[in-house]
Amino acid sequence: QSLDYDVCDNTLFQDEQRKRLRDRFSLRTNVIRWIIFILIGIITALIACTINIIIEELSEIKYKFLKSSVDNNVPMTDREGGDLALPFLWWILLSIIPVAIGASMVTFIEPITAGSGIPQVKSYLNGVKVPRIVRVKTLAVKAIGVITSVVGGLAGGKEGPMIHAGAVVAAGISQGKSTTFVKDFRIFKAFRDDHEKRDFVLGGAAAGVSAAFGAPIGGMLFSLEEAASFWNQNLIWRTLIASIISSFTLNIVLSAYHGLKDFTFTGLFNLGKFDQPLSFEYFELPIFMLFGVAGGLLGAAWNSLNMRINQFRKRFVPWKVGKVCEAILVAILGVTMACTMIYFINDCRPLGNDPTIHPVQLFCEDNEYNAVAALWFQTPEATVRALFHDPPGSHKILTLTMFTLVYYILSCATFGLNVSLGVFIPTALVGAAWGRLIAMLLFYLFPETQFLHPGKYALIGAAANLGGVLRMTISLSVILMETTGIETSFFFPLIIALISAKWVGDYFNEGIYDTVIEVNNVPMLPWEPLPQYKGLTANEIMSKPVICIKRVDKAHYIYEVLRKCEHNGFPVVDNVEGVSTITAYKPERNFNSYTALQDRRSEGRVCGIILRSQLIVVLLKSLYVENKQFWLPETTIQTFRDVYPRYPSIKSVRPLDRKIHYTVDLSLFMNPSPIRVNAHDCVPKIFNIFRALGLRHMLVINNENRIAGIITRRDFIYK
């Protein structure tokens, strides 16, 4: 199903607009709209702070315990005991318990929370009705799921799910009620429709990005580049304000929590500031471009492999218990590969050079630590930060080579599990690892060079890998600049790497979010019509025959239409020859017996369109012509908004046994100005109209204004 982004400009709505002009309501509504965007930023940031603090505390306990277990069980020649199998088993146990909890909650309570949530939010903003995407239960499961997944050590991050969390917060606050808790606060009633809700959800997504990365401008640009399908100038300002408020609130709370007095803790994905300004030589630009090419190739391969893995999961792991077991199996695989690297690779470094949080000595000498364990005994965000800022010589070439290969495979196997995790952090981590690795190899080949700063190349590698997987350019470069605090002069190398990665990756496949949407068969409208639709006309793609309803029609006929078909929009016709209101339907006939009468209805002249949800409300509230004097004075557009967004189904309407001959006049409720196109109009033209206006239904008429067919978003994709 689609969302109704086109405003229903019926008589009730027009009456409300005229009343607002008299009451100066528009000014008050605009002020309230700004207040809602500010609240979205504050609450999204507080949720992000809560998630971050819990993850930090639990991860600290976990890795401190594992370090102690390793130190106490290292086999020593001068004493008995010591079995490294014990910390290995503890690590597996401390990984599978939280992963099992998170995967079970996602699988059995709210499956929509699986993954980062960005593809779902993107589909919602495109106009696709994604069930249960912005509910309170979804937010709760998402928050707990991302905490358990990150603490469990899966190859993912908490940044992506924050965008989904911000969208849920925005959808909840803007409606002034909770359908989950059946509580109506009787505020913000003017915003209870899909069109208004869409704008708030976009602001929530931007606030989520801002909280995740401490990048308010990057959050606004992310919403514009990656999430939004509809945009306007006023929305830019409101989205930016929500992003700024979110970043500022998170900065204050986390800075206070960490004891910082200068409010410098920016974002959950805090990569730290470089000690010295990053500079580059112009002869390095081809190297950065080659980094982008490598990132595009690796990203395209990652997307293709991940898509095949997810298709395999969809086909061979359909059971819920199997999905939970799969997540546990991947967690065990990750721990096993990490322990294998730590045990067999001898990479000892002196203490003091690398600011490792939990240095593990293992088989190293005194005052040394195991550099391989340092990569694994912390959260993925901390590992990215270490690869950016560790001094030269902190790792062996073999260490980073194996770490890159292992994490590349792990991240590919993890994204698509039934857990709440984002893809941003593992992608950045893999890119930072191979970027730093290439810098080390170049320095090994050319030891006299002065420009090979390993942190600089780790940043370029992370950007290239992110560009190859996500296919973002402008917003991603701004996010990385705001997150690391690098100078604007370094924007040029970043954008070169990102654009090169995007161009190379686009040659092979689409970005990971679009790939997920495609695998799930979501009817997402692209920016331009598909090539096979060019040269076609509306007559070749429209759906027909169309079920029509007369402007004044029998209530029982409307009831039977709603009961027998699942359509969500019906053209309203008038001037139907040979079908009167009185003889249009006889109750002793079954629904199929008046197909001929329905065909005659389709010969009427189009005078509007009515939605299924509106017809059900009309029947539920008995808004009939025969008792018009009782309901007309009290019926407003708010009558329909009060049941939004969970409109009742036709099953909630009692059979109209005593109201067989009652009639319904749709003049008050229908949209009298639906978008109509001629049957001979070209598809690219009508596609642009359909997408630009965010339509759900488009009527196709002939030269006499009689219905010829109807077009929905599926007609632009599956025909």
What can you see in these coordinates?
The longest helix is centred in the N-terminal third of the chain and has 48 residues, at 25-72. The chain is elongated, with a radius of gyration of 29 Å. The chain has helices spanning 11-23, 25-72, 85-108, 118-126, 136-151, 159-175, 194-213, 216-227, 233-257, 285-316, 320-344, 371-376, 380-389, 397-414, 424-445, 454-470, 474-484, 491-508, 512-519, 538-541, 555-564, 595-601, 612-620, 628-631, 638-641, 683-693; strands at residues 177-178, 183-184, 348-350, 368-370, 549-550, 552-554, 569-574, 605-611, 663-665, 676-678, 698-701, 707-711. β11 and β12 (707-711) form a beta hairpin. A three-stranded mixed β-sheet has the order 5-7-8. Strands 10-11-12 form a three-stranded mixed β-sheet. α2 runs parallel beside α7. The chain is built from 26 helices and twelve strands. It is mainly alpha-helical and 719 residues long. It is a multi-pass membrane protein. This is Chloride channel protein. Belongs to the chloride channel (TC 2.A.49) family. Keywords: CBS domain, Chloride, Ion transport, Membrane, Repeat, Transmembrane, Transmembrane helix, Transport.
